[in-house]
Amino acid sequence: MCERAGLLAELKHGAGCRIDEAAEKLHRLSQDIWSCPELAYDERKAHDRLVAFFSQEEEGWKVDSHFKLDTAFRATWGPGGGDEGDVVSVAFLCEYDALPGIGHACGHNLIAEVGAAAALGLKAAVEKSSKLPVRVQVTVLGTPAEEDGGGKIDMMKEDAFKGLDVVFMAHPSQEDAPYLPCVAEHDVTVKYHGKASHASAYPWEGINALDAAVLCYNNLSVLRQQIKPDWRIHGIIKHGGVKPNIIPAYTELEYYLRTPSRGELPVIKSKAEMCFRSAAMATGCEVEVEFAKNMFVNILRNATLEELYEKNGKDLGMEFTTDEEVLTNGSGSTDFGNVSFAVPGIHPYFYIGSDALNHTEEYTVAAGDEKAQFYTLRTAKALAMTALDVLLRPDLLQRVKDEFTEAKLKEDRLLKDGQTDRTSKNK
Ligand SMILES: NCCCC[C@H](NC(=O)CCN)C(=O)O
Question: pLDDT tens-digit profile of 345-397?
């Protein structure tokens, strides 16, 4: 074994040992987040718990609490690993927001645990070595509001990802996969303003905002038949009126519009907008269409990082899914997509010991179950090992960066040329 391979194996082993050693406190960390679910932008206890973890329970971290957002944080360590070479900055992202009514049904408590564990592992490995070809900075970014709003996008607008070389996070799922297709998404709130009146005595005096909401819902349901099979339109009526004998004067709907790529979003948005406005016209209501401040985009893939992660995962016993349907069908969306256009990174998915589906009560149970711990820590080890791969081999890091630049240029060109449809023959 050549010297570098021996060192790499030793460091990977060291990272894993450190993660195992911290297993109990990492479990407590994710349990505390899981047992007190908090919604997007309001993850105060989770924020404080993670800040305390890095500033009190662990040594050597510089912690910026309330970093860029009220419930975001940053913990940094380094540079370490020797006194030679450029500083390479590796970041692990923690999410920790929950869903209304069903708690941690997407397992973001485990995302926080993976991020913290991988950072501990990488720091320990780097600390032990003075022979690295680069100096290493380890960053943990606490990124709120993935389920609503897109905290990472807010943080990007504030330059929170500036200066990072590679970013890693991992998301709970039903299987291990280095990548699953996440779709682009833009959310919209539609408000109809009508006029109240006695619904039995003089209904002709009213303007029915609920009728507008129902027509809007039906227009979109009809539109669904004419859009691409992998586009998604789904929504709820948030306000539907207050009493049957009052003609509803105000209604409100919330819709999520999704397409596989960011370039297709404007098309679905303009089609949906016609549905919103025509419902207003038919009923005589006024309509307000408010698109969310942040648009989530698809993930820019990095094959080099994905391959390294898969190899490390396999070495740790992961069995990656080969189910073509899972590997090709779009799933949800993530604000990591936006990050992936700014910094090279990966967002693999990991099995948590249960077949339950995300966004169900069963998944909430699974995310808090002790059984998830083995898989969560194994994922953290695979991420730390992947970071070590690129840190010990500057040629690999360069390949990761070149691939990122090329993929971004290609996506930008497609967008500029108006080639929105990735499934078209021209692609
Ligand atoms: N509408 C705000 C964003 C919703 C993001 C959510 N994310 C997930 O389910 C996690 C999968 N990465 C979604 O897709 O609905």
Answer: 999 999 999 999 999 999 999 999 999 999 999 999 999 999 999 999 999 99
- Preceding omega of 178 cis (within 30 degrees of 0): no
Q: Per-residue pLDDT averaged across 277-295, rounded? A: 98
Neighbouring residues of 130: CB distance < 8 A, sequence distance ≥ 6: 81, 82, 83
Q: Whose C-alpha lies nearest to ligand 1, atom 11?
A: 332
* Model pTM score: 0.95
ipTM of the shown complex: 0.97
Nearest atom (ligand 1) to Cα of 347: 12
Closest CA to 153 of 64, 256, 41, 233: 41
| Ligand 1 pocket at CB < 6 A | 106, 147-148, 171, 182, 185, 187, 256, 296, 332-334
Asked if 74 and 140 count as a contact pair (C-beta separation under 8 A), the reply is yes
Of the pLDDT bands very low, low, confident and very high (cuts 50, 70, 90), residue 330 is confident
Tens of pLDDT, residue by residue over 156-191, are 999 999 999 999 999 999 999 999 999 999 999 999
Residues ≥6 apart with Cβ < 8 Å to 256: 185, 186, 187, 232, 233, 234, 235
Residue 406 CA: distances (Å) to CA of 340, 400, 421: 13, 10, 19
Q: Which residue of 147, 153, 188 sits with most ligand 1 atoms within 8 Å of its CB, as the best mutation to test the pocket?
A: 147
Nearest CA to ligand 1 atom 9: 332
Mutate to test the pocket of ligand 1, among 185, 236, 333, 339 (most ligand atoms within 8 A of CB): 333
Q: Which domains does the chain have, with CATH numbers?
A: 3-182+298-416 (3.40.630.10), 184-291 (3.30.70.360)
**Phi, psi at 223, each rounded to 5°:** -55, -35
- The atom of ligand 1 lying closest to the CA of 358 is 9
Q: What is the DSSP code string of 168-224?
A: E--EEESSBBS---PPEEEEEEEEEE-B--BTTT-GGG-B-HHHHHHHHHHHHHHHH
